[in-house]
Task: structure prediction
Amino acid sequence: MTIYPSIDLKDGQVVRLKKGDFGTTAKVAENPLDVARDYIRCGASWLHCVDLDGARDGIRRNSAIVRELCAVGLKVQLGGGLRTMNDLEAAGELGVARFVIGSAAVSNPEFVREAIAAYGAERVAVGVDSRGGFVRTDGWEKSSGIATLDFIRSMVNLGAARFIYTDTSTDGTLEGPPLETLRTLRAKLGGAHLTASGGIGGIADVEALAAIGVDGAIIGSAYYYGKIDLKEAIALVS
Result:
């Protein structure tokens, strides 16, 4: 299982949100590059980066920072505001290794097919942000009305092979990931790659996710609030 420590960017700052609510935005670090370097010291090889400005309004205000993060030595998986092929090209020019397509996969499913055709299934992940069994969009602020499992099946039919699942009701809470939901998704996705995001509050949650057989886990708040030893977590699943 791959551990993806995360950096969420808003207005150039490293922040965390609780349950995706922008009203709970809290700055959690002074310098994103220092955070990334600490991730490397802990043994991370990947960084999960979210441009919250891009996710909410499509304006990529954090591109300069993303470029610097890509040069630190981690492979960067970027989500937030990637809605067109031009967006993917621009992110690729920054050095991004993998693109996470979220809202655009809902509003324009053919974009996912086009992205996979251009970059390959390994470089494209579909972000599945869910609450109450339905997919959320636009920085988690809107419900699509599409059932989560139906959406995932449609993405598999388009060639998607990597999914990042976030239950937005657990994200940033440190109360544990939705294990039963993830167990169900793991069973239904077959050979597709499944990364769990949201709710991890300690090393026991990492162990539980590994036992389910998910392929990746994103760690954010647990690191910033000192609830997990990132080096221990990475060593546990390596």
Remarks:
- Residues 2-237 form a domain with the TIM Barrel fold (CATH 3.20.20.70).
